[in-house]
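User: Modeling request: complex.
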Amino acid sequence: MCLKRILDIIREKHTMNLQYNINKFKPAMKINKLSEDNDFTVSNDHLSSCLHDIADNQNIDAFKTIFKYFSPRLKSYLIKLGAVDNQAEEVIQEVMIAVWTKSASYDQSKSSVGTWIYTIARNKRIDKIRKEKRHYLSESDEGLEIPVESTQEKEIFSNEISVKLKKYIDNLPKEQGKLLKLSYFYDKTHADISEELNIPLGTVKSRIRLALTKMRHLVEIN
Amino acid sequence: MNNLKISNHPSYDLLFNHAMGNTSEAESLIISCHISYCGTCKKDLAKFEKVGGIYLSNQDKVKLSSSLWDNTLKEIEGLEPEPQQSNYTSSTINSSLLKNTIKIPSFLTEYLDNKCSTDSWSSTLNNVKYKNIKFNNKDFKGRLLEIPPGKSMPAHGHESYEATLVLHGGYSDEKGYYNKGDLVVANSDEVHSPVSSEKEGCICLVVYSGSLKFKGLIGSILNLSRF
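Assistant: Request completed. Predicted assembly structure:
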């Protein structure tokens, strides 16, 4: 069976249940990393000012900065979740159109630019690839809630946190780290993981919970 | 509205899965509805989304098609950036339980088929009103219920699971009392016998997978009447 047909079946089932072994995970397509990765130091303040510039002045250069920074990373993210090349780029395009039209709604006091774009990409991916509705509370839907003080959410993105997080995942006991990545970044259900790795469901759940508790602590102290 | 005492929340796993886009439509609907009442879970969700943002920012870069930038530019040509979204949308339903309209999370309105008054919902033999909700994924079903004050519901269990979110009033069962905003997830092996609030009755959203399995005679009748 050709890869395309397999992917079609996967999409029909609304699952990303690619056959693989945890030790040799293969995304749907080969990931060609770009060799030059010299813009990691672009600060959140800079990206944030680009969004303001888009909202206020429709500045194409600012838009290009956002596009160049996030699109190649979005592509990696989407491919890891099972998208093929052209699907990933369709989603990226939709994300970038949303960045262009909705930049005025970005609130620097509530999230980093990376988090804001992540939430857009998460939703667009579900719309486009899984073709299902999903619901997320948006800023325009606060009619019922108790408002969250923005000061509590005022957490400026820093490379320090990213490095800590990466280090943290890398330093988790091997099994925990793998399970966490499979569950949350490769879209696997606990049952899938249990079946494929032949680990009892209860063990999968408890290991992930343990990893999450540690991660929550890490996010909180930052 | 600001004094809601919410003591039942989605599990930590469920909320994180939700933040990562891994929950089903039915789960995401009821979780988001809960969050529209619950500041605590909203904060947790923001934290998890932050993890997602860090994850995205740490991705390796993958080469884009050379035409993607030009094509994107064409798409945005003529598109004006939208003004900042207003911070408030309000959705309501009318219910015989209350004179005033009842505010509901706006996500729900698209499932109501314009049946914004519970008068137009279907009715069971024992005066419970309901509106079924369909999801693309047939494994999940949803139902809005309006239960008159002080009514006992038949004891029932679930093949898979059931999650209930209280939108108005409340109910109690063997384990406790549930208020507006509470999200209660029942496991497959639990059988419970809910009773609606004596004072206010209860309007709630239920999503479930598998079939509800009612126990006893009344349950059987209700099953037949497609409660």
